[in-house]
Design brief:
With 207 residues, the protein is α+β, with helices and mostly antiparallel strands. It has 7 helices and 9 strands, in the order H-H-E-E-E-H-H-H-H-E-E-E-E-E-E-H. A 6-stranded antiparallel β-sheet has the order 4-9-5-6-7-8. A hairpin with a 5-residue loop joins strand 7 and strand 8.
């Protein structure tokens, strides 16, 4: 587990993350990128704890997501399942678990002020904090592309190089976008980084 985890988190945070996994008996499953979430936690029927985290390409986002999900586990242990998933109990525990990691040995110095601001009142997802998400996206392996909010309505774009979408209307804070292959709608944060494609490019992909 230590060797596998070392591929995904910053080296200076590796032992801390491993210790938390061992303390709470977490079965960690690293999965392919999902549009709807960065990670999730659920209690297994036998009493174990399963946490899944997107493999992604960014060790800092992976680390934040892992601790985010461990905080759910700890919140339910300490307060029971009647609490709100992202309520005050979870926020306090998330901050407590992240505190030992908020230093320049783990995170780049330019991220630390943004993280400090985020953890005053943590949101349900790092993507829900537009400023934090923008800063984290700078460390993605693939930095090319534009933000969804910069595209005109009706524009086609590729997400993670594989899936093609058409930008639709804005619903409150996120954009409803149609995946062309499945005809399913997905909600994108305005600061999601995507690759614009032309109709000619799309024709070549499908020919």
């Amino acid at each position: 587990m230590l060797d596998i985890l070392g591929r995904y988190v910053p080296e200076a945070g590796l032992l801390y993350c491993y210790e938390q996994i061992k303390i709470y008996g977490v079965h960690l499953k690293i999965v392919n990128e999902r549009l709807s979430r960065h990670g999730d936690y659920r209690k297994l029927p036998g009493g174990g704890h399963l946490i899944t985290v997107n493999a992604g390409s960014n060790p800092y986002r992976f680390l934040i997501t892992l601790i985010h999900e461990i905080a759910h586990l700890v919140a339910f242990i300490e307060h029971g399942h009647s609490i709100r998933p992202h309520g005050k109990e979870w926020k306090q525990i998330f901050k407590r678990l992240m505190l030992p990691l908020l230093n320049p040995a783990v995170f780049p110095s330019d991220l630390l002020p943004v993280l400090a601001s985020h953890f005053i009142n943590p949101k349900a997802s790092s993507s829900a904090d537009a400023r934090l998400d923008r800063e984290l996206s700078r460390y993605d392996a693939q930095e090319s592309g534009v933000f969804v909010e910069e595209l005109p309505e009706g524009a086609l774009f590729a997400y993670r190089e594989k899936r093609i979408f058409k930008k639709g209307n804005k619903r409150r804070k996120r954009y409803e976008c149609l995946e062309l292959e499945t005809k399913r709608n997905y909600l994108f944060q305005p600061n999601a980084r995507v690759k614009p494609i032309s109709e000619d490019d799309q024709s070549r992909r499908t020919s």
